[in-house]
Amino acid sequence: MKYGPLLFLGILFTLASSWVGLVLAPKQQLGGLVPNVSTNALGAVVLYPQARKGEAQQGEEHYRSLGCVYCHSQQVRPEGFGSDITRGWGKRRTVSRDYLYDKPVMLGTSRTGPDLTNIGERQSDSGWHFAHLYNPQITSKGSVMPPYPFLFQLRKIGPGGASTNALKLSGEFAVAEGWEVVPKDSARQLVEYLRSLKTSVDLPEAPLPKVQEGAAK
Amino acid sequence: MSASSQTFSALLPGDVSDDSSKRALLAEIDASCRVPVLFFVISGLLWLLAGTALALVASIKLHSPGFLASWEFLTFGRVRPAHLNTVIYGFASQTGIGVTLWLMCRLCRVPFVAPGLATVAAIFWNIGLTVGVVGILIGDSTSIEWLELPRYSTPILFFSYVLVAVWAIITFRLRREQHLYVSQWYLLAAILWFPWLYATAQIMLLIEPVRGVVQAAVNWWFAHNVLGLWFTPIGLASIYYFIPKVIGRPIHSYYLSVLGFWSLALFYNWNGLHHLIGGPMPAWMITVSIVASVMMLIPVTTVAINHHMTMWGHFGKLKHSPTLRFVVVGALCYTATSLQGIANSLRSYSEVVHFTHHTIAHAHLGLYGFFAMVMFGSLYYIIPRITQREWPSLGLISLHFWACFLGLALYVVPLSLGGILQGLAMNDASVPFLKVVEGTLPWLKLRTFAGLLLGLGHVAFVGNLVWLLARVFGPYRKPVVAILMGAETAAVVGK
To answer: Which residues of chain A lie closer than 8 angstroms to B270, CB-CB?
Structure first.
């Protein structure tokens, strides 16, 4: 080959094609998505999804910063494709609209741990989440999730007695007499974020199944 | 026998002949490359050591989660992206740029233009990356795969990259050789594609983020193309250069080279969205990427046939040339990882392996087995020429090769298999999730062992290089001609 300009143009046009096809076109098709408007049983107008606020929004930052996405996906594949729905990770597949307000969108590519799309629904108990984050072995023996002791504070129990939010630790996980483990702000925010993760909302493009079977947790 | 007993032949298209003036020109080119190429390469290898250490920490954590658990900055979710970014932008990109600079000078037949400019680029690249990796460890990772470096560090990298691209275009314009060898097509393409990819991703994901899952589309268009349009062309350019160079015969077929290049250019850049199979995207986006992935059969088989036919009858030379050994293993891994990638992109196969460690094995077969091995081979050829020093230890070269080869095999084969088993178990809802996790442990432990072997290989390589560089500053300077005359002379003079 001798023609530099031909080579140059070929190089540019080939990449331009997929830039139009896989970058611009998705932006064109999905960039204008808006929340779904519906009325609930009481007749009130409901918007879904909604932007996270307060602690849940701050918790999303911790989820990003701690790199949870490297082991946990947030996407439910359709019925019959993998076991996502039979495992109870969601009642329906997730669709583009579910992610309108995620910053960034953390779909994930690995399930070293389970999918978290609906963790807020599957496990709404903050106490469980605190214990699990402090040391996953407390709630899930054999898990390979790392403990996050740095999201908690080990402190002397004050004169007023143990804090209400102190972790209930027993057996091998117990701390010394007179000491307690309490969640820091970061742990609280992260748990609020996890509890906000739920997608069991009827959407025209992804309706909830009509017959609700008791999906296993 | 000398480590560089590689035939220095005249049969590469558009390159050296026995003519002594041409040899003098090559010597001049090599000498002019010394500072900038070494700067990129040495920085790249230091990042490789850092990246290997981070990889080991991450790997151990995955089967022993209590390991170093109390330090926030070393938590798995930070060490893993820190590893990825150090090896991608630190090792692979910088070593790749170093090799690219040398190949461009050689193929364009011009001594290094403005070496100061390239060295400044390398300095900025390292500053930007250091800031970025520290950023990831202290919690500023973007959690967007392949783009984790925080927003405040990436403009420095981009600026540095622009300098490299400007340099490459100037060199290309000044070329004295009008015929463009196939390696140059790939290099020019890589140099022009990367800034487009990087700029698009930066703008649409970090500076002015697009909404919702459009981010995922841009993310995977970018991430897959970094592999396909940045590392792959540099790797293939090196294979196309070094196989003919070392064995002393031209590439088997010019037409296959043309077909291989243009079909890669046409199809590879459409592959990215197969990473989102089953995900919340309109079906057409994923389907179009699957189709393009299957079309990759054309460039992959074309290139494989072309390289294999060039090597045909010359496999005996693998024994004597470390360059050839690394490069040929890299070429085989390119074929293997591409075929594996095509399989992974099929819906039925992806349903099983998508979220498993299979993907990790696949990524390492590509980036390590193909790209890193080709880069190692290239450096075994380039460094003695630009430093005018022979590799001091044959033993360390063998250790490097075998540790990396075994480490790679023990990494990729078992983990690919383990990933499939993991996926099958995960798709069977009657298997409790923690049982699935338990099933992955033996494979993950084996992976740590494989990683240690790779680390051993890297230390051997860097040790040999440090030894070689120590000789550069030593009293004895080997005459240029000794290297250019080839094996025997170099071995004698080297004593």
So the answer is: 17-18, 21-22
